[in-house]
Amino acid sequence: MSNKAQFFRINPMESIMHVDAYQMRPLYSPHYSFCFLTGGEVLCDIDGKRILLGPGQFILVPENKEMFIHHFKDCKGVTGSFSMDFLKDASYPVLRSSLPIVQSFWFDDAVFMGALVNRMVTAFSDKDRAFLQSAMDLILGQLRPGGHMAVVPERFLQLVFDPNQAPLSVSEYADRLNVTANYLNKTVKAHTHRTAIDWIEIARLNLAKKLLKDPTIPIVDVAIRSGLEDQSYFSRFFKKKTGLTPSQFRSGK
């Protein structure tokens, strides 16, 4: 929806999450961007900041920021963007932040937010500018800075999804973070609702899929660069996760 310089857009996430994360290029918007999840999870980088979103979380991303999505699964909710001059009130403190704002909504508040953003999707289709402006006023008034993960889980995810490093083992990441493997597992599980090995396998699989799309890279090298030097074990791992052998995936069968 646009009127001269004014801009607003909102879409259900189900309508845009139709490709794998490894296929996605960095996303960029000259406008403010936002996302609210009612289900699933998204792991992304925004200007080098690694952020994990889950159900009931809303993120507001400032203008002219680049986003790269590392992983998403079973995503439900909405995503959208707006220009400052679309708003009735552009004086909210969160609009002066140069960092992404993540806000968690719980229980009744999460249900209310889910209903509100779904109504916004309908209002956008109906070109109901007045409702959309009022809804954005309500949302922006509730957002506060803060709410990011603890240091160890955040740093762990940065290491696991480092594009220049093959995924390692839990114990190797624990050594790099100067914690025990047991502590790493517990704190990652507590803050992300997934185990450390879950995230390692997600990163390994995404990297393998990306490398397999390049026919010039032998499968044995794909295995090594994915962190599994045993090609047979790599093939079993890949088939367990995808239902296809690496060769079948490469050939598109």
| CATH superfamily membership of the largest domain | Regulatory protein AraC
| CATH level 1 class label of the largest domain | Mainly Beta
Low-pLDDT residue spans: none
CATH topology of the largest domain: Jelly Rolls
Which series of helices and strands comes N to C?
Answer: EEEEEEEEHHHHHHHHH
Distance between the termini: 41 Å
Q: What is the residue-mean pLDDT, rounded to a whole number? A: 91
- CA-based shape: globular
Please report the total strand number as a whole number: 8
Report on the biggest sheet: 8 strands, antiparallel
* Overall radius of gyration: 20 Å
Structural class: alpha+beta
Strand content: 15-25%
- Second rung of CATH, namely the architecture of the largest domain: Sandwich
| Number of self-contained structural domains | 2
Per DSSP, the total helix count is 9
Fraction of residues in helix: 40-55%
Task: Describe the protein's architecture and organization.
By secondary structure, this protein is an alpha+beta fold. The chain has two domains: 2-142, Regulatory protein AraC (Jelly Rolls), CATH 2.60.120.280; 152-251, Orthogonal Bundle (Arc Repressor Mutant, subunit A), CATH 1.10.10. 41% of the residues lie in helices and 23% in strands. It contains nine helices and eight strands. It has helices at 108-125, 129-142, 151-160, 170-176, 181-192, 196-212, 219-225, 231-242, 246-251; strands at residues 2-3, 6-12, 27-29, 32-46, 49-53, 57-61, 65-82, 101-104. β1 and β2 form a beta hairpin. The radius of gyration is 20 Å and the shape is globular.
